[in-house]
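question for whoever is on the cluster today: can someone run the full assembly for these? two chains, 521 residues total. i dont have access anymore since they changed the login thing
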Amino acid sequence: MIITKAKSDEEIKEVIQPFKKLVVVGCGTCATLCQTGGDEQVKAMVQKLTDWGKEVTGSIVIENPCDLRIDKRDLKRLGDAMANADAVIVMSCGVGVQTISQASDKITLAALDTVFIGEVERIGQFYEMCRACGDCILNETGGICPITRCAKHLLNGPCGGMNKEKCEVGTDKDCAWVLIWKRLKEQGREELFTKFREPRDYSIKAGPAEIIWK
Amino acid sequence: MGPITEVYSKLGESLKSGKWTWTGEIEPEKTTNLEEVIHTAKILAGHVVAANVTDNPQSFGCMNSLVPSYLIQKEAGLEAIWQVTCRDRNRLGLLSDILAAGNLGIKNILALTGDHTTSGDNPQSMPVFDLDSAQLVYMIKKIMAGHDLAGNEIENPPKFHIGVAGAPGAEPLEPEILKIERKIKVGGEFIQTQVVYDMEIAKRFLDAVKHLKVPTLIGICPLKSYKMAKWMDEFCPGIFVPPEILEDLKKIQDAPKEERRQKTDEWNLNFFEGWLKELKKTTSAAGCHIMAVGFEYIVADIVKLIK
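^ ran it for u. tokens below:
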């Protein structure tokens, strides 16, 4: 899931300052689960904007704002509400904001900061798990990603900053390579830990990535 | 890899010979002035075979380590162990500097991961870590063999002895040893360790790396004050200062300045005499790496303790 957090009221006030009429768009998927862009948060945003003297011409929670087809369909259904708005304030990750800005010719504003791709342990507890590096090594590391969970994204074991199983960056966090070592040991796959991994090929992530089926 | 075969430097020669070897440490600072660095190098010269020149230690931005490495060799006659971390440069930047080091007559490199940027004085910096320390060793060996990581040819390749770091106080120790094994496998020729005060920790580490058959220099650090000892114990990952040391230094701390200095020096010489004799007599250590930044005058006396 893509984890988001709300921008501060001060920042929102500043970005909406030039506009009088606004449409609010939420996200029915990730931001709903994060409680940053679901039904309730969209209602609260409408209330806030009204309190700040803005006119909200319409609001909607789009199931997948990261899907251009759905955005085009749902924004069309807003009809005059969209046509009369000066700008659209989007409560989703950066993908949703950008996709909506493609689906409409209105100025699109982001209400959230996109933080990471993460796991939901419970509501309000999210942990980063994937950096979308494009070359997954989880099969070799006991299902624990060092690219994401090692602060230095090392590939060949812990650094000298590991202390009592913890990371040197934020000493409350576990050292990913100690977790990997323990997991591989439990699984009887220690040989994977000792494998030398050559430097990664970062050219596969050069420029914006795309996948186009042929 | 394993034991040193070809010799490129005084350090390489000393380690290959099996003689007890001393290395020292020099930290360039946040200045363009290198007078202090050269002065320190002159104090250390003759007492240590070579000195590490640190690369933005603890991620504090200082002059790059290559220029002072060159100058201590040229102006103080002290061989450098050029420290290189993966924190601030990608493989292109590292390659450029390694070739420059070859031209400047640098013959020893300590290949390090580097502390994270957030521990330093510019915590907003982007941490690079394009390579890790094992991959850095691997790249240096490739460069020495005439190719960069992508396989492009390098004319007139340089020669270095490559050292790697060890953390004897790591808990757990096993993954740390497995990492050192990897670094040796890809080309590391000697190990320099983090500071150790507890002899049992030094012995445990030396036993664990014995099978690698590479010279290991145990890190020591004379203690200038109780405050410094307490700080190291609390804030340096993997460094454990035994409580009896802290107690000894606490007793000295309230003495008047001159007396305190004299007593601190005496305490260090007394402590390290027994410690070094035991290390030399009962372990496979190849020598010691003495980190006495700001306390260099004591190095000559400590080195003499086991001559």
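summary bc i know u wont read the tokens: The longest strand of chain A covers residues 112-122. The mean pLDDT of chain A is 96.
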